[in-house]
Queue: 3 jobs
Job 1
Amino acid sequence: MSQEVFELVQGMDLKSIETQIALQCAPLISGLKVSNLLIISAEDEALVRVILRRSGISFFRLLRTGEKVTFLLFRKNPLEAYLKQQEVETMLAEAGYAELSLGNILSTFQKRYAHYMSAGGRFPHEMGLLLGYPAEDVKGFVENEGKNFLYSGYWKVYADVEEKRRLFQKFENAKETVIQLLSYGVGIQDILDIYKDENEPKQAAV
């Protein structure tokens, strides 16, 4: 993050739901990523649902505690396409997912994640797949128990380091753009509308 944007963030209300969406989900908003986690105060859950209602971004509540809510935010078609990749389906099947529709995957993962957060035990590493991380990096993380990575940014990288470095820089650039728009007084719903138009498939002229 550039010094200019860092200073903008310091001047923002970090508790504002608009700021939190920008900081946590800019790669998804911009269309660079198929999904993102969003962790917010429980009191803001209803507001998030209103903000995202017509944004083109779907949301699924993974966990609610007394103080926090964890959402998976995603673009439905791109996430479904990613989860249908052969290597991803194989990894999900090996992790015990019998039904590989998006709804069934989310439902099963939600139960596993809630159990882990309440009782501990094995962390459901398939979260990396739901977040759209490259399959080789999720596999490398599991096999190496989070060690021996080649690079660490938005996730731990086990292959194609330079490609991932460039991708992470694009994520950072997206974050800076969204933060700058907020600082100029553009509301988060207007920002979502801008990117919704950019990311919706264009219909061919007839």
Job 2
Amino acid sequence: MNKIIRIGTRESQLALWQANQVKDLLTAQGYQTELVPIKSEGDIDLVTPLYEIGVQGIFTKSLDLALLNNRIDIAVHSFKDVPTQLPQQIVHAAILPRGPVKDLLVYKSNTDFLAQPDYVANIATSSVRRKAQWLRKYPQHQLHNLRGNVNTRLQKLAAENWDGAIFAVAGLERINVRPATSIELDWMLPAPAQGAVVAVCREDDTFCLEACAAFHHTETALATYIERDFLRTLMGGCTTPISAYAYIENNIVHFTGELCSLDGTQFFSTSRQVAIDQATDLGQAAALEIMAQGGAEVVAQIRNVSC
């Protein structure tokens, strides 16, 4: 094993945490590795809302190019950031065991405002999905754009006159920066593949494919593939208020999927439970059900606005 596996990663603390998980797993098998930090377009432009940039692949394109140009051998991503259609010649090498999937609200002083129907709270997030779900529950609130890595967003929240901001539990807990002033949003369904980490490599790189196969987590892979099939069937990857979560218990796959309009006023949901050996088309079937409920019109509206 004289070959050094070059692991590409974004430069944020969270991205480096994820890349080091893969590095440690490879090192434990006796492979030699090194991290190669690479800036993404999403890390450079921290002002423009993601839906205006065109979010598909915004955090992965630079690493994909480095992979295809043979500057790195493996790229490590938050799986929710990865487009449902990978570039040609790039494949999933391993999906790691899933971490926390929920979102949480980091608040300034207290959460009393959540119970005050006439109070116009100021809430920050860059996620179209979170905005739509929040407006569905709190239509009177004002939503503000919040970009940057986890630490930057926490600093911006502290500096602005906002009541709170929405984060992923996994992102805060993995780098030990979750504030005491935070509550998990049990009612908010996560993004497809939220909380999961994926390593990708070139499809002809049998060395890296074999190295990563040892820590590929099949249960997480099945759950996240179902969620991403739901996303792909509905929209194919544009910036959308689409949520999905699948988990496996006693060989049964439990799935819930949701679609919101951008302003949260229209909402479609489906829940299904199927045997694990019959779950191959679960995400696609659930998405078609949403479309038949009336979701197709909302999808068309969103395409006109954001795609």
Job 3
Amino acid sequence: MNLPAPYGASPAAMLRVARLDLTLLWRNRTSLFTVMGLPVLFTALLVPLRGERIDGTDGALLQGTGHLAFFLVFAVFMNLVTVFTARREDRTLKRLRGTALSDADILGGSVLTATALYAAQALGLLVLLGAAMGGRFPADPLLLAAGLAGGAVVFALLAFPVAAVTPTAELAGLTVLPIMFACMAGAGVMFPLDGLPGALREACRWLPLSPVVEIARTAYFGRDFAGGGGHPSVGLLEGWAECLRSFAVLAMWAGLGRAMAGRWFRWEPRRG
């Protein structure tokens, strides 16, 4: 099933779908906790790390910048997998296709909601890191925005094929758990990857969340977290140059997600 081209979407129609999504999210307490509650819980875990040195950096700031990437899993990935699976199985997607809304409006509205929720969480976390955790203004805000936006694109695209293989909305949480744990443990969110054996460290860098973490930390601290160890200071242009590999990995995952979404995504309930 081919996905619609984004240029076929109407901004006004997408906003109507986005408002519907927000209303339904508010009524579904389980989904609301996943999207909003879990990020708050992970943010609270930063408090005991303040002042502790990890890899030569304040622990709260190091993990906090990792959470800038990790929150994509909750607000974008898990959220969209649940939304698309639930709407497919209760035939809402099929009914919406019978309205004046285009396919791009229907899907784009949900992606818009998820992305807006994530943007609000990322902005709130940046304010918290600066105001309460002894942090700073990002050294390169443009690089940071580009990395987080690229991550949002990748995890939105990956949500389509994962929703396609998820039987019911109730099982969506189980379907995404392996990806969530892999990203949490292997993308450098909870601990630096520098201490891992070389082959394992290189494999972890190919996870879809790893390049977002590398870009976010490089942009925030103005130090090279995308290259080798030591994390030397980098200028604005040097930061972009060091993150080229990370952007290439994101582009690879975006292409793979788009191909899998076009092949597997379905509008009608699964049979059998």
